[in-house]
Every structure is written in C-alpha cells, then in structure tokens.
Amino acid sequence: MKKKSELLYHGKTKSLYATDEPDYLVAKFNDDITAFNQKKHAIIEGKGSFSNHFNAFIMQKLKEEGVDNHFQSKLSENQSIIKHLKMLPIECIVRNRAAGSFCKRFGIEKGQILDPATFEFCLKDDALSDPMINESILLTLNLATKGQIAAVKKISQRVNNILEPLFDDSQFILVDYKLEFGLFHGAILLGDEFTLDTCRIWDHDTKEIFDKDRFREDLEGGVMPFYHEVARRVGLR
Ligand code: UDP
After folding, report:
1. Which of 80, 104, 111, 202 is deepest in the core (most CB within 10 A)?
2. Each residue of 95-104: pLDDT tens digit?
3. What's the sign of the alpha-carbon dihedral 106, 141, 82, 70?
4. What's the CA gap between 207 and 209, in Å, rounded?
5. Beta partners for 172?
6. Residue 83, number of CB atoms within 10 A of its CB
C-alpha cells in the first residue's frame, strides 16, 4: 500500500503528491476547469472525480491493448496512483479532423477529415503559449533524443489506432487530443491524462460538442451532462 505524502505540484486541473515509494505518485483530479491559457477558469463540482474515472478507463483500455502508460490504480473517487515519470517538455497533438488552432493556422474548414491523422509536437511552455516545434528543433535544443521522439510517434499512432475506433463504436468522432510522455527507468511511457478536458469529441451524426469546448464557448446545457453521456456511451457507467 503506497502512502500519500507531500504535495509536489499543483497544476491547472491536477495536483501531484509524493508517496512513500519514489517510483509512484498520487494524482488528484481537481474540480477546476480552465481555458485560453488560464484566462478563463471555473469550478465544476464533480468534474475531478469524473476525470479520474474517465482517465482510468481510457488508460486501462490502452494498457489492455498493449500501450503501457503511467496509470496504476484508482485510489479514491478523485485520486489515482500513477508511476512517477520524468516528463518530456513536449505535447503531441493528434488530429483526425480539423478544429481549433489547426483551422486558424492552415486555413482549413472545421470538421475536414484529416487522413492520415496528423501528429504535431508543441513545446510545453505556457509563457510562450505552447509553440509548435519540430524534430530538428527538439534535437538541437536537447529537449528529446532521436530514440525518444521515435517512441513518442510510435505510441501516439498506436493510441490513435485504439481510441479512434473506440469512440467511433460509440457514435462519436474523436476530433483531436493531446498526449504527454515521460521517462520511467529509461523507457518512454504515455503519461499525464486522457480526459474530456484534453480532447475534442463530437456526436457522429449531429456533430454536437461533448468536450471542453462546451466550457470554452459557454454552450447552453453546461459541461457535465455531456461528459456523463460520453461515459455512458463508451460503457464506463
Ligand atoms: N490541448 C490540450 N492542452 C493544450 C493544448 C491542446 O489539451 O495545452 C488539446 C485541445 O483540448 C484539443 C487539442 O489538444 O483537443 C488540439 O488543440 P488546438 O491545438 O486546436 O488548440 P486550441 O484550439 O485548444 O487552442
């Protein structure tokens, strides 16, 4: 039994605590929801516990399908035990459809199918607004090695091969999402979270929004009823 100890990090939506085993942390999902680089913020009761359960569900699915990741077990309604990774300072954004910044940057119509899916690296740096970065720059700035970049690309592709059909089977379109990775005893593992705060999901037929864009755009009907409907349709509860 791993015992939770001191707070190591208080992020936008999660807090990380040490445990009595250096290889493991406790991740606590908070009720905060933020957007536009924290310019918009709210507390949504129950979102932390929802995200904890949803993340556990997705990470367990990925593990069952052979994509190892940092998730270990749920500890409580809003906390999970995770492996202690040394995070790479990059995000990998996977896109199956054009939305958000992709449409703005490349002048592509929202909803256009992206086939093959695109994989895009961003530097994790809020002060710089997470600029897009490529392999050459990552290598030159010593932010990742060739082997690490290859592992990140391979895992991201496998994640998409699993998750895109999983949501498709539940009559949803997995539009785009963000993945993060870290090192655990020298190996690259998927880390951070996969929740409805870090992806875009639309109803297959109506294209209705079921993700954090509901909060970004102040859509009528709020956020949680839609998050619960995604959980219901994918078979989580
Ligand atoms: N995303 C995220 N965290 C980030 C950046 C992006 O979770 O720091 C997710 C975002 O929710 C969306 C996808 O990655 O599902 C692509 O985001 P995009 O680049 O279109 O940026 P946005 O439109 O959110 O500014």
Report:
1. 80
2. 999 999 999 9
3. positive
4. 6
5. 203
6. 17
Q: From residue 70, give the alpha-carbon distance in Å to each of 22, 142, 230.
A: 14, 24, 23
Extents of the domains making up the chain: 4-83, 88-234
Burial of 143 (0-12, 13-18, 19+ CB in 10 A): middle
Query: Is the model's pTM score more than 0.90?
Result: yes
88-234 — its CATH code?
3.30.470.20
CA quadruple 106, 108, 130, 124: dihedral sign: negative
Q: Which residues contact 225 (CB under 8 A, 6 or more apart)?
A: none
Q: Do domains 4-83 and 88-234 have the same CATH topology?
A: no
Please give the distance, rounded to the nearest whole angstrom, from the Cα atom of residue 178 to the centre of ligand 1. Answer: 6
Structure tokens at 178: 């963000």
CA distance 142 to 95: 26
CA 172 to chain centre: 17
39 alpha carbon – ligand 1 mean position (Å): 15
What the block records as the tokens of 69 is 């990741």
Among all chains, which residue has been given the structure tokens 């409580």?
76
Smallest CA separation from ligand 1 atom 8, residue: 130
C-alpha of residue 60 to centroid of ligand 1, in Å = 23
Q: Regarding the domain delimited by 4-83, which CATH topology (the fold level of the hierarchy) does it fall under? A: Phosphorylase Kinase; domain 1 (3.30.200)
Q: What is the pLDDT of residue 1?
A: 64
